[in-house]
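ASSEMBLY PREDICTION REQUEST
Request ID: AP-0331
Submitted by: J.K., bench scientist
Number of chains: two
Total residues: 572
Priority: normal
Notes: Please return the full assembly, not individual chains.
Input sequences:
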Amino acid sequence: MAMNSAQIAQPSLSVQIASLNLKNPIITASGTFGYGEEYSGFIDIERLGAIVVKGLSITPKKGNPPPRIIETPAGMLNAIGLQNIGIAVFINDKLPFLRQFKTPVIANFFGDTVDEYIRAAEALSNANGVHALEMNVSCPNKEASWCVFGTNPETLSHVVSMVRKVTRLPLIVKLSPNVTDIGLMARVAEDSGADAISLVNTLTAMCVDINRRKPILANITGGLSGPAIRPVAVRMVWEACKAVKIPVIGMGGIMNFKDAIEFLIVGAKAIAVGTANFVNPLATIDIIEGIEKYMIEEGFTDINQLIGSLKI
Amino acid sequence: MSKHFPVEIISNSSINQQFHLLAVRPLSEIIPPEPGQFYMLQAGDNYDPLIKRPLSIFNYYEMRLEFLFRTRGRGTSYLSRTRTGETIHLIGPLGNGYSPPNGDFIVIAGGIGIASLMPLLRQFNKKAVLFYGARNSNELLMLDTACELARKSFISTDDGSKGQKGLITGLFVDFIESNPECKLLPVYCCGSLPMLKTLSLIIESHNMICYASVEEYMACGVGACLGCVVKIKNDEENGFSYKTVCKDGPVFELKDLIWQ
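STATUS: Completed
Returned structure:
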């Protein structure tokens, strides 16, 4: 007897990231979804696995002068300069809106110094409605000749372990892809107390105006995102998944459910949608529905059967 | 409020080499746009070009949106090649448009800048004194329509191929100096950066109110990516803050803009 649709059990999409229970593995990537309000008119926030908000710092940041963005082949380059309203304004003005949803809120944060990271983590950990922290370690360390925290194992280890001491919230470390050995950086984050890692942040890149012979972005270099970087991101997520036991959140150029499934297959427990939100404000919902349909068609009843199912 | 919705191309006509008029029919219910608002238009297939392109609404009536644009890069050339019957996706209406005038007003358009100002001329028929300038007569787009909608029109081109030879800002200065009572009228403008810069000096010296629509590269159109900022004067540190063209604008008071 043919099964009718009512008899097909809805597959389970729920995943566990440290102590966070996500109803599905689709989250938004920091800096591409504002503070949630920007997209709440387009999609039902409740349907998302989690929201990661625009990166926050203890003091507000004005950001870089324009031009800040430029389109590249199948991608975009940005140097926004971490413009943000600051943690205090976020807690007062933005968190109340986000608290009305059952969707967990992951606060992305950064600092120019280790002390700023610590103060940011403390302030966010005490806020009602923040369920996890994501540390952006791809910004320059003003105390150590502007090298980027996350591209040096020692500075990465130091800043992550210092933050670990001041928060009990799940701590996700967002790794920079601009390193030679991503597995090593992933292990360093794990050994320093991270509960999960997320990657990739944008790839450092540059575009030149050949008529003016000048960089196109005012900041000279920027971060590359979009489908152009996806194969690089898949490879790095695969390497990171092999290197650590903690959950890995994969991202980098995910535009549709097929892209998302690539990341799940190589081992990502969850995936983040970034640049795709700009192109299609409904991208996250389309991806959730696409994964569900794929699972039914392929006979998966639980998304955890799919995660890390790469055959080599 | 804005939406992401599919549209069917009704017609796509070339006005002259670089300029196109694109008419689309929304395939789902839309929110009516206000003069000065814009849409993000899908400008590629298979994610290349990736980012939607911001275009001002040029004309809107029941289930029809029209965009007048110049072909400049990969995205606008894609749009210029779309054909009747094809479907693309739009986001909109977006941004804060022109604050509606309360009576007579002045419009200053530079070239393709007319696209953003035309809905204002249409909505307030015969209320505007129009100043419309361009490099040459080919770039004075929809000139007859614009003049018909205005109470009075002044035209100029850089090369003298139509109207007065010279800059439109020159005609505007002559006009307000001989009609000082018009300094009380609000000015609405959209045009090139040099035009806006010259105009800002005129507006300041005559103590007038002017609303300018500006453009910047943008990715999202909804205030999320923070890519499209301009410097706006205020009391914050260093006397300015960055405001998004897409959400805080695209219309700003001209006196508040700080030029890069």
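REVIEWER COMMENTS: Chain A is about 30% helix and 20% strand.
SIGN-OFF: pending second reviewer
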